[in-house]
Amino acid sequence: MEILQNSSYPTEQVAFAERVNQLLKDKLDHRPKACVVTYGCQQNVSDSERLKGMLCLCGYEMTEQTDEADLILSNTCAVRGHAEDRVYGNVGALKHLKRRNPNLIIGVCGCMAQQQIVVDRFKKSFRYVDMVFGTQVQHRLPEMIYRVLQGEHVYETSLPNDSIVEDVPVRRDGEVKGWLPIMNGCNNFCTYCIVPYVRGRERSREPEAVLQEAREMIAAGYKEIMLLGQNVNSYGKGEAHGVNFAKLLRQINAIEGDFRIRFMTSHPKDCTTEVLDAMRDCEKVAKHLHLPFQSGSDRILKQMNRHYDRAGYLNLIKEARERMPQLAITSDIIVGFPGETYEDFCETLSLVRSVEFTSLFTFIYSPREGTPAARMDDPVSRAEKGKWFNELLKTQEAVTSKTLQAAVGSTQRVLVEGCADTSGFLVGHTDGNLSVEFAADESLLNQLCTVKITSYDGILRGEYISK
Ligand code: 5AD
Ligand code: SF4
After folding, report:
1. Ligand 2 mean position to 265 CA, how many Å?
2. Strand partners, 429
3. pLDDT, tens digit (0-9, with 9 covering 90-100), for 46-72
4. How many other β-carbons are positioned within 10 Å of the β-carbon of residue 161?
5. Please, which residues have CB within 8 angstroms of residue 386's CB and are 6 or more apart in sequence?
6. Distance from the CA of 99 to the center of ligand 1, in angstroms?
């Protein structure tokens, strides 16, 4: 892993990486290996690619196996309690590896590491964890490893809200689909959500930095670029350069090459008709909108601090479909927000039926300490919420098979990602992220092509049309 000339990645970190290289050479009799374990959302997967880039700069080679690693880093998620419990369990299970290999370095980073109660718990009960650091200081990983090699326990959990450090080395997991973070943090403070507390204030990258990274990815052969941010629709807000998300989409679309652009996540309150127009006009932008609505009840939306109502959301869907009749729409929903009644929940169900989402990400509300919702009255039992949740899944199942059936007869752009189980058949994803199988030559692997959807029998099947 090399740092490019005129990179703005801090030179002191490059120097720390060189020292780490040397220290590891002196200490170990083999090439050091590192394993990064990632929990949670795409933002974390993308952050992990940069953590891996810095580890490579420090001389590590990457492994998926914790038991052969000299450094294990868990990049954690705090969005729901269940994800946190898994981290405690899995990091707990690393203790025996440390006993066997005292040179092993164990680190915990990401959203969990940004919460004081979590850090205190690691300090007290997980003494064998050598470094705990938060989301905004992760570009200083070489320095933190250096300090651990000097015998220090490192706890770096400040949230300085500085601008995003550019040119952090990146080691991408895939060669065809790649993540491109365009911003970090969130200013929305939805009352249930921990993200604004653990990722800090919203900060956008400079448009030129985003465009440069996009150009590099396209030159390297990437066919799908996923633009990432907690709320991409507010990209560039308040910045002097005046490039908002709609303009950024148009600029990336103008880069030469055969590739597809995706983005997530959109907040309905900031999803303007200007963004929808840009989606419609840009031929490389997938006609897919992930637009979380969380609840169909106006009363609950208010309690959630979402700044839109049911009618506003439905109007946005109408505006989007008027511009893009084939648009695939997906969403996130929370079931069992504090004080939600069965009547409120039925409003969610009816919205699901009327919009006809391609697919849904559904969650049972999980109280997060420090958020306003965690202090609200929550009289409905977990068992009852579980019943509602199952009812929602059943409702969406029927909608999903209806939307898949409706895709039959349409012509779609498909990114070919692999061979299907049946020989001679390939499998790929449409703009709307639907999986489709069709007969074609393997030379199409990792390419975009046009496919006509011909049938649905639990799997969408199609016919190859052209490149
Ligand atoms: N409980 C359950 N789901 C949550 N989400 C965010 N916070 C919580 C929580 N406390 C869900 C929202 C968000 C998605 C990424 O995770 O639906 O859109
Ligand atoms: Fe959380 Fe709301 Fe920000 Fe999404 S927009 S990260 S749900 S606070």
Report:
1. 9
2. 415, 435
3. 999 999 999 999 999 999 999 999 999
4. 13
5. 364
6. 37
